[in-house]
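REQUEST FORM: STRUCTURE PREDICTION
Request ID: SP-0412
Submitted by: Lab K.M.
Chain count: 1
Length (residues): 492
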Amino acid sequence: MNTPSLQFIRLGEIVTLPALPPTRTLLQVLREDLNSTDTKEGCNEGDCGACTVVLGELDGEHIRYRAVNSCIRLAHSVHGMALWTAQDLPGFDGTLHPAQQAMVQCHASQCGFCTPGFVMSLFGLYQNHVAHGQTVTRELAQEALSGNLCRCTGYRPILDAAQKMAELPSVAVNESDLLQNLKHLAHSGRAQTADSSYISPPTLRELLAARAAHPEAQLVAGCTDVGLWVTKQHRQFARVLDVSRVRELRCIEHEPQYLAIGAAVTLSDAFAALVQDRPQLQAFASRFAGLPVRNSGTLGGNVANGSPIGDSMPLLIALGAHVVLMSQRNGQTHHREMALEALYTGYRQTVLQADEVLAWIKVPKPGPGELCRVYKISKRFEDDISAVCLAIKLQLENTMVVQASIGVGGVAATPVRASRTEAALRGQAWTQDTVQSAIHVLRSEFSPLSDLRASADYRKQVLGNLLQRFWLESQGQRHINLESFTCEGESL
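STATUS: Completed
RESULT:
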């Protein structure tokens, strides 16, 4: 089996690493192969942010910057990109980058272990906002740092540093030279053979052909789940098939009746498209993991993985989403489409056949009279896994419920539709009495497990409480969510 090399750009130079194993992580490459020990290993599961780096990728004639977790990112997935770690930011004369100098001036570092990760998230914020003359608000800073944890200083001085960067002398990336190098790598392609241990096809046709030839290969997209199998379960895969470079699957298509999201679209971009159609989803989208996870993870990967506590699936079920599965057989391309909830057959099991890939998620556009909300219950407000996730979409006509669609996570072996509760609402007047009856049905519809996140009784109680919250919000009450509260002054 052929083991391909890896090439990326660092400090203006093309770095080439030959014969890299398919499951080697980017963090391992940085610390062990390149001796870049400024990038720290903390949790090794994408939660703490100590390993954060920034990737630069071609986006037309521009460069797009994303902060990502290097601990669960397979190294081969950054082929052809630019890479920055904390030690790459100072000038040749040792002058600190504004992201670093602001941390110093605001006394935002204590033990220092988490500091390089914070600096890299700030660098991503700098490149995407400060470098374009945009103001960094407190809210924007919190969003950018949502994937980083600090145990020493508290977050106020770090948030101060995020806003301080714009006051310091500016530092610009030489994007002209970087664009040339990125285009050079893109045009030179990548030496891959039919027997490569890491296959990253650039087109859908090549992806389907590779899947047909290697049904045993481990499919990856953003790798935020499979990365944990590597780092925590120490699993190794002889061959990896990466869908994240497939041009067709990196697109979002806005059709008159639906939104078609390619399986390789990042969670950040997928949620941005969903929020464009339904602005009320913004708070939920921001709570879907930390920003570095959303920058790496893909909507297709989250759906195909089928975790019962994956947050995107209850929402997509409630929105009436369909998935498109594709394969290549006897030289012909085949596809089949189904409701998203029909994809799952058991705990992390799907109807996907060995030669198939999940290619598209089709999400209907909002209809007239639509009420839609999604609620995530977790122990931490940010960057935490749900105990319960409930998504509700109703269509009302003259206060009558003509259509009801409810998706639920955390209450069964798979993400599920609350079909009995939907039936209890459909055709009824949208009143408190109707809601109370539906609450009783919803609490009895599932038999959840008790685990470290919540007891079965708690989950049942919360389901009903969330439906009651939905009713109150539909009647105009707004100050009943944590999202409605803001902290005053400089307490954060």
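NOTES: The chain is about 30% helix and 20% strand.
Reviewed by: T.R.
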